[in-house]
Structure formats: C-alpha cells, structure tokens
Amino acid sequence: MRYAVIADIHANLAAFSAVLTDIDNRGGTDEFWCLGDTVGYGPDPHECLEELRQRNHVSVTGNHDWGAIDRVSLADFNPDAAIACRWTAGRLTAEDRGYLESCPVTLTRGDFTLAHGSPREPIWEYVVSARVAAENFAYFSSSFCLVGHSHIPLVSRETDGEEVSFSPLTDNSHLALKGDRMIINPGSVGQPRDGDPRASYGVINTDDETFELYRVTYDISLTQKRMAERHLPEWLITRLGMGR
Ligand code: ZN
User: Fold this and answer.
1) Order of strands across the sheet that contains 57-59
2) What distance in angstroms lies between residue 37's CA and the mean position of ligand 1's atoms?
3) Distance between CA atoms of 108 and 141, rounded to whole angstroms?
4) Backbone angles phi, psi at 51, to 5 degrees
5) Using alpha carbons only, what angle is made at residue 88 by residues 84 and 91, rounded to the nearest 5 degrees?
6) pLDDT digits (tens, 9 = 90+) for 56-91
7) How many Å separate Cα 24 from the centre of its chain?
8) How many whole angstroms from 118 Cα to the centroid of ligand 1?
9) pTM
C-alpha cells in the first residue's frame, strides 16, 4: 500500500494542488495521511478542506485548525498567525467547522502514529532537537511516528532503544522503514521553513517498507497575490517566497 503523508497545508491551494498532481504522477495513493494545520496563514481554507475531504484520507488536528474553531486561545499565537486565524474563522462553513471538530489529536494506522506536533504534546510541541525527539520516543508504541508543525522535513532515529540521531530530509531523501524506530516530519505543503520554498510531502510504501520525501514547485506568486487581495499580514506573504 502507498500512503501520501501531507502536513501543514495552511490554506495554500496552489501548493496543495501541485502536490496532488505530483502524487498522481507518481502512481497515486491508497490513502492520504494528513498531519493537521490544513487551515491558517493562507488564502483558501475552505477550498483546501474541500479538496482534502473529497479524498480517502485520515487527519489529525493541528494548532491552527483548533485556533480557527476556538478550541485554543489566539493569545497563544504570534500576532500575524492570530490575525490569519481570525480571518480564517470567518471563511469556514458550518461543515468545515464540523469536520475540524471531528479530527482526533492523534491516531494510529498500522505501525504508524500520527500527531501534529509531537506524540507527547500533539497540539503544540515542536520536535526540532535530538533532545526533544529522544524524550518523545517513550510516548508512542508503534515503530514510527509522523509529525508536522515545525514545517521542516526531518528524521530522528532511535537506535537500540537509546541513541537518538537527528537529520534533515531533502528532495528525494529515502528512508528504509526497518530496524530503527523513527519520528519523521514530511515538511510542509503550504509554508515550508527549511529555506526551500517548494511544497514538501512524503510517500510511504508499506510493501517496500520505504519513505520518500518529495519537493514540488508551485506558483508561489499566485498564493501571494490571493493573500494580498485578502489583506493577510505582509510577513506571511513574504516568507512563502523564502521558504522561511
Ligand atoms: Zn503549521
């Protein structure tokens, strides 16, 4: 079976559409595994939710998803993110809100645990250091955990139940899913922050036991134009072009 792992779409429809096309071109997927933050920051929250909901998928919830439906306080967001969250809330339909309410905080598919931030603190914790990764291996029982939230493609490995390594993933990175337990972040579809502005996602093949990371070029200026039309904060528009 093939699973497309997508995270942090952030209402960026141009990026999401390019990723969907890329997935199709690579042979499609049996199920989408979405790691949350489908909305927030970007110009097309309703449209991205609709695209996702049309497909065979499972999704956990993220901090921006909860921010848009008032499940977390916007005081916990930075000012630009809070402005975008408030704007997002006004764009969602009742059906969108019901869908976001229904997404669990974590879920398990086969030997994979899915969480937005970390298995220990699924909504808010960033797994961006070997120390935090090492602590989090105790919080899931499957071999693998998939997380988003940092928008940085990364893999942490636990070797022999103790040593934890931590390394970035780049375009066409390939992981063999056997031996070590791992925490894997496929990067962000809609707002990459590793210096590469291309959309990022992963594909798991459970027959070959592999994970592949892919980067996809999309029309960044189109998303930026839509954000400007909606008067979303300037920095959120600028950062898309820098991948920061
Ligand atoms: Zn995010």
Assistant:
1) 57-59, 31-34, 2-6, 199-205, 210-216, 174-176
2) 5
3) 10
4) -60, -45
5) 145
6) 999 999 999 999 999 999 999 999 999 999 999 999
7) 19
8) 13
9) 0.97
**Distance from the alpha carbon of residue 64 to the mean position of ligand 1, in angstroms:** 7
Which residues on adjacent β-strands are paired with residue 199?
216
Instruction: Give 12-65 pLDDT, tens digit per residue.
Output: 999 999 999 999 999 999 999 999 999 999 999 999 999 999 999 999 999 999
How big is the CA angle at 165 (ends 132 and 163), to the nearest 5 degrees?
A: 85
How far does the centroid of ligand 1 lie from the alpha carbon of residue 141, in Å? 25
62 CA → ligand 1 middle, Å: 7
Q: Read off the amino acid at residue 6.
A: I
| AA identity, residue 234 | E
SS3 74: helix
Lookup: tokens for 138? 């105790």
How many whole angstroms from 63 Cα to the centroid of ligand 1? 7
Bridge-based pairing state of the strands 163-168 and 199-205? unpaired
Distance 11 CA to ligand 1 centre (A): 10
- How close is the Cα of 160 to the center of ligand 1, in Å? 31
Residue 65 CA to ligand 1 centre (angstroms):
9
What span, in angstroms and rounded, lies between the C-alpha atoms of 217 and 215?
A: 7
